[in-house]
Amino acid sequence: MWLDLKDIIVTPGAVKSFECDVSTDGLFVPSVKDFTAPPHAVGQVKNSAGALDLTGVLTAEMLCVCDRCGREFLSEKVMELKVPLSAELTEDSDAELWPVTGGGIDLDIVLASCFILDMETKFLCSPDCKGLCPKCGKNLNDGPCGCVKDVDPRLAVLGQLLDNK
Hints:
Mean pLDDT: 86
Structural class: mainly beta
Number of strands: 7
Low-confidence stretches: none
Helix content: 10-25%
Radius of gyration: 25 Å
């Protein structure tokens, strides 16, 4: 979605509101299997003494795959948006500034980038997920698997001393 900012770039204190769905076409996150609804953003761009700031909230409902046990689970991500924009970029400009080109910005690109950069590095179905047994592959969240635990080879000598008695 193109957000035209021509009318607020030159007017300090001016505000332009927006509300849109973000396209999921470019949102590739390995542990996100699908989106139950397109991510939704609500916010505004405000001119504060010549500096443009995009603020708002982006909400996404996703079907994710747990990185430890492989189970699918629903997850909701709510992230706060705070993006500095600039109509005039120079070589010395801050790298975190988003350029306003042609008098506006492409919200899909800005919001998708913010979403991907704010993603968790690990998706877990619960904070105490036990994962899978490395021997048999049973989901340990469903209960113990019954596999015999391997003895650390560095401590095997101590085990032999106990066996002799």
